[in-house]
Design brief:
Length: about 425
């Protein structure tokens, strides 16, 4: 609500960025209008997955969170789980939960779990806007020993680790546990798997989160000078690629009070003395192949980013594309997946990404093997067809309502090749 200044003129609150997490399009449209008329920006997410994607792209002054998303669900478990993850990633997050009048128990549980306020359905727009503005104005006290949350200018893209696999859930738990401590950490794992993002997430959970960490590539000796003035946290890349003499010099150069987060391909090449200084805790980034369905979740996230970047309609992956992404093995890990999705969205006409639009890496997945064999005239009987191929074909047929021509184009196959596979699988 507007307030009145000393000269009697209304003071309109400054524009705020709000995220609404609700699966009801009518509610989203109504709230977007209400907050826009109040001078604020409202982005919408239709569920927790999309909410995490939005929160990984930008910071929000407040989050309006519905408590149920599945049909027939009224327990609030989905909303409470989403709230727990949001608050774990950012203890200062301003979350206002939305629940029905019969859900006072859920509202109380949400407040105990870190929500800053709650609103009951149905609501009046002006009252809801005022409630959100008041929640933002109250702020949140920093946890003991922590600085205030970093400003949006300092960290425009929050370092959030996306993924629902067991490996990523364990990684987030570890990050939340070690982030607030002064312990030095060494992060290993395949290049492109998100090691730097994990380092930034650890720093964001630390008492030094209000200052940017020094980021030093140790292969460039000239960059070592930054160690002399570094305070708080330093992210040190490739200590394992230094020889023994250089590692000893590095150990002498690191200030005693500096928290180090090292990124290395492997622990073994690091000499024991430097290892003790850099690796109080070792964190292993899981390869994408070990992250179950996370590849599809990440692909959707990258499609949203690419669509916004290139001014395309909301990026959307077809069922066949998701099946292909799930079975692919990406040589450059998450980084390679992001590039493939970005390219596919850019080249698409309407933001839709089919399997054929993906520059899939060379790998022994069935449709690619089949396509290569067709090009060389190899008999169809020689193909090593797998369950993955059947899944992709079924997804493409569903997506295109069993229009074989369109499904074949989506898969990058000829109609004849697709008909042969359909016959083989009884489709």
């Amino acid at each position: 609500m507007d307030t009145v200044s000393t000269n009697g003129h209304p003071v309109v609150p400054s524009s705020r960025a709000i995220l609404l997490v609700d699966d009801n399009p009518a509610v989203s449209r109504a709230m977007e209008i209400a907050f826009r008329m109040a001078g604020h920006r409202l982005d919408t997410a239709n569920g927790p997955e999309e909410a995490y994607s939005c929160l990984a792209r930008r910071r929000y002054d407040a989050i309006l969170l519905d408590m149920n998303f599945s049909t027939g669900e009224s327990s609030g478990r989905e909303g409470l789980a989403c709230l727990a993850r949001i608050v774990a990633d950012d203890p200062a997050a301003c979350v206002v939960v939305i629940t029905a009048h019969s859900g006072i128990r859920i509202a109380v549980a949400a407040m105990q779990a870190g929500a800053r306020d709650f609103a009951m359905k149905p609501w009046r727009n002006a009252e809801l806007v005022a409630k959100v503005e008041a929640a933002i104005a109250r702020g949140a006290p920093a946890p003991p020993g922590m600085q205030a949350a970093p400003s949006a200018d300092l960290m425009a893209e929050p370092p959030r680790l996306l993924g629902d696999s067991a490996a990523m859930q364990a990684l987030r738990t570890l990050v939340h546990r070690i982030g607030p401590t002064p312990a030095s950490v060494t992060i290993t794992g395949p290049s492109g798997s998100g090691r730097t993002l994990a380092a930034l997430a650890i720093h964001a959970a630390s008492p030094h989160a209000d200052t940017a960490p020094a980021r030093i590539d140790l292969r460039d000796e000239a960059a070592w000078q930054r160690l002399d003035d570094a305070g708080g946290t330093a992210i040190l890349r490739h200590p394992d690629r230094l020889d023994g003499v250089a590692q000893a010099r590095l150990l002498d150069r690191i200030p005693t009070a500096l928290r180090c987060i090292a990124i290395a391909d492997a622990i073994a090449p690091i000499v024991p003395a430097l290892y003790r200084r850099l690796a109080t805790v070792e964190v292993a980034m899981p390869p994408l192949a070990d992250r179950q369905d996370d590849a599809v979740l990440l692909a959707r996230h990258f499609a949203r980013i690419a669509a916004a970047r290139f001014g395309k309609p909301q990026g959307r992956l077809t069922g066949a594309a998701e099946a292909a992404i799930h079975t692919a093995r990406w040589p450059d890990e998450v980084r390679g997946l992001a590039l493939a999705i970005e390219r596919a969205v850019l080249l698409s006409g309407d933001g839709t990404v089919d399997a054929a639009a993906l520059a899939l890496p060379a790998m022994p997945t069935a449709v690619q093997t089949a396509g290569a064999a067709i090009g060389t005239g190899t008999p169809d009987a020689n193909f090593d067809l797998t369950d993955a191929e059947k899944t992709m074909i079924e997804a493409a047929l569903r997506e295109h309502r069993h229009n074989v021509s369109h499904a074949a184009a989506a898969l990058g196959l000829s109609r004849g090749a697709l008909y042969r596979r359909m016959a083989r699988y009884g489709l």
